[in-house]
Amino acid sequence: MENKAFQALVVEETEPETFTRTVRERSVEDLPEGEVLIRVNYSSLNYKDALSATGNRGVTKSFPHTPGIDAAGVVETSEAEAFAPGDKVIVTSYDLGMNTPGGFGQYIRVPADWVVPLPGGLSMEESMVLGTAGFTAAMSVERLVPGLTPGQGPVLVTGATGGVGSLACAILSKLGFEVAAVSGKPDDGFLGSLGVKEVIPRQNFLENTGSPMLKPRWAGVVDTVGGEILATAIKATRENGLVTCCGLVASPDLPITVFPFILRGVSLFGIDSQHCPMPLRRDLWDCLAGEWKPDMPESMVRKIGLKDLDESIGTILKGQVRGRTLVDLG
């Protein structure tokens, strides 16, 4: 088994700060140490994967490297009692795909405490349509409920056509919340198919950002982009409203006063899916396989193979991806 060859996307630094991406053969014996060897069936493409694949040192420090922060597959060998050959499992977050070879290869080897059994209500394919994006959305929703109920008013989702945003919309809608969405893309009915009741163009949403407070509107907010959009959402959050923050694609800065927090009692929660404790991680995957399992219309998912990753990485970096990109390694 140790000499088994497999296909993987490999990112190499051919010259200083010049990176190439090719699908090529690797060997299982080249993988790092770990208790569980997994044959990967599916992965997904995330913005962090695209950063790793283009040489971002804040994500991946050394090359050659195989990105892919998500993986779902079958245990091939295990030195841990908790897992046996043939078990269907999920690995997301931790160091997978960052500095540890990730899910864009047909095999990964990881520590046992990174591995989650695949819940009974999900197929491996469905688990990777969700992936880190769906898990991050679930962490955000978990911060909103049970402190927030559908009768308390609408919940806003920013960056709503992206992976985390679209899945947050779908989960919240499934739970009965009235969902509004901020998007920089034209409204073509996609968000409506996820249960969104109101789509607000990004330029309209930002038109009053000079005021320290805005008319209270949102009972809760799931923000995926940061910057002025997050600041505007907080300013318009109702008394004792709940806001989560998980992204910085717009900006890492938060240009805001303390007024929404001390005059309306707004709470802001940071979401860190990479280091989520394992008991909560398992609970949330069970939720995603059960009552929180979102409806995922066909228009939400684009399926590709390893050979298609190079082009898709460029597309996601340009902000042109809608919904989720599923990677089939079969």
Task: Describe it.
It is a single chain. This protein has helices at 47-53, 124-144, 163-174, 190-193, 202-205, 227-235, 259-263, 278-289, 309-317, and strands at 5-15, 18-27, 36-45, 70-78, 88-92, 107-110, 115-117, 155-157, 179-183, 196-201, 218-223, 237-245, 267-270, 301-305, 324-328. The chain is an alpha/beta fold. The chain folds into two domains: 5-118 and 298-328, Medium-chain alcohol dehydrogenases, catalytic domain (Quinone Oxidoreductase, Chain A, domain 1); 131-270, NAD(P)-binding Rossmann-like Domain (Rossmann fold), CATH 3.40.50. The strands form three sheets. Strands 3, 4, 5, 6, 7, 14 and 15 form a seven-stranded mixed β-sheet that branches. The chain is globular and about 65 Å long. The mean pLDDT is 95.
**Tally of domains:** 2
Query: Which descriptor suits the 3D outline?
Result: globular
Q: Output the CATH class name of the largest domain.
A: Alpha Beta
CATH architecture grouping of the largest domain: Alpha-Beta Complex
Distance between the termini: 19 Å
The CATH H-level homologous superfamily of the largest domain: Medium-chain alcohol dehydrogenases, catalytic domain
For this structure, the CATH topology of the largest domain is: Quinone Oxidoreductase, Chain A, domain 1
